[in-house]
Structure formats: C-alpha cells, structure tokens
Amino acid sequence: MRIATTSRWESIISANGIYNPDVLVVDETLVIPLEGVVYIVQPGETLWLIGQRYNIPLQNLIQVNRIDDPNRIAPGMLLIIPSKTRPVIRVNGHIYMLGRAAVPMSVRTAVI
Predict the structure, then answer these.
(1) Average pLDDT, the chain
(2) Distances, alpha carbon 60 to alpha carbons 17, 55, 64, 111, in Å
C-alpha cells in the first residue's frame, strides 16, 4: 500500500515552496519527495526483522514511526517504511546542432 495524499506534481511544488510552477530558475535545486510504504506488522515480527527486510536501520524505523518502546509492537500495527535518501547529482548537457559547435545548456542539479 502506498501513501498518496497529493499528486506527484503538488508534492514537488509544495516541497520546494514554488510559487509559480510555470517559472523555474536555472541552477535551482529541486527536491523530489519520495513516497513511503505503509507496512502492516505480522504475528511474530519484530522491528529488527522488518528493518532487515527493507534494509532500514532499526533506529530509523523507531524515529520515523515515533515508537516509545520498540519491544512492544503488535500484529496489525501500521509502520511507515521510509524511502531511502537518494544522492544529489549535477548534470551537464550540451545541444549539438548539425554543422555547429556544441552549445552548453544550463547546469542542473537533480535529486534522483
């Protein structure tokens, strides 16, 4: 089950505080929010086992889900499995027109 309360575009606009989505600034860094996964705890599972399954550190699961006592989770409990942080990369682009020299495009930064 995925969390989807707003459209993908609305979440990008909101996360970046964009006033007018039709006007972007060259070299502006944009944050692309990733959706988390909602997981239902099954009988016999522990936070440690769930963290291992999703390759998420135990402390991260505890913090994201605001769990006071990690030893007291119950079947049917809903947990948010956070998306992994993605690196920021810089991309250089050039436009090649037949018979002309390359024209550099703006350098853009993207979170992928």
Answers:
(1) 75
(2) 26, 11, 6, 21
